[in-house]
Target: NAD(P)-dependent oxidoreductase
Amino acid sequence: PAPRTILLTGAAGGLGTLMRGLLPAYGYELRLFDVTPIEGEPTAICADLADKDALREAVRGVDAVIHLAGISLESTFDKILAANIEGTYNLYEAARAEGSVRIINASSNHAVGYTPAPLDGGPLIPIDTPRRPDTFYGLSKCFGEDLAQLYWDKFGQETVSVRIGSCFMEPSSVRMLSVWMSPGDGARLFHAALTAEDVQHSVVYGSSANTRLWWDLTSAKALGYEPRDDSEQYAEKIIAEQGELDRSNPAHVHLGGPFLTDPPIWPY
Ligand code: NAI
Ligand code: 15L
Model:
């Protein structure tokens, strides 16, 4: 049967807030979880991923999990370790104990951030390109993907790991013209990941059908994802303001962009 009740971790965050707005239209009922309280949502579970009992209770009875909670930028190794590595492990253990529901896991382009961008018409970056994390943050996303593979191989627990590009209302840099995922396409991709059959552990890039796309969306489309948006409508304005990509700047010519040289630090 199609999944209906979904646990949304990280529901207070930027992407969580966008998905709270968009996913109910697909018929999902969302159970919200975040360490940050959410105004106007008295039933949201306000707990840390370190709280194993709260996670067990949160997962109990849902049909699937969309796991967005965690540190979403670079930070100290200790903080990344607690929130993203131990926190994701705690979620997987809770899900395994509660019937192994499918997890849609927010991975990131920063798991492969040091990969050179195909700027001059080179082939799109395949999904099985070697991992090249650009930060401790990206390294934690590599861990999440490997954890998902282990839980599939060992326990038959399904995951779709989505290497999200930049999911915001609009792209705000020349790099984002290549890696942007519109919120609408984000919801379409999560819906496809929730409803596709037999996903085992699938790894997919998450972005819109951008004219300047850097990576291969084949594995995402195999789930039934049909992106509708393209960042190109923003290109002229952004390039007029910021100029073309500078080939001598490492932050312009690798997938991970500014995370290579000047990573945004959490909390900020
Ligand atoms: P965000 O920083 O706005 O939201 C993350 C949420 O997780 C926050 O509400 C925070 O309170 C919560 N959180 C952090 N540590 C927690 C803990 N220990 N226990 C419980 N809750 C905790 O980040 P955003 O942009 O919404 O991203 C969501 C997820 O998607 C993150 O995992 C991020 O790494 C991933 N992602 C997002 C991208 C984007 O473009 N927005 C791109 C690539 C990956
Ligand atoms: C990410 O992984 C971050 O969570 C998000 O805030 C953006 O910085 C995004 O990558 C990006 O690469 O633009």
Q: What stands out?
A: The mean pLDDT is 97. The pocket of D-galactaro-1,5-lactone (ligand 2) is lined by residues 72-73, 108-110, 166, 257 (CB under 6 Å). The chain has one domain: 5-259. The longest strand covers residues 102-108.
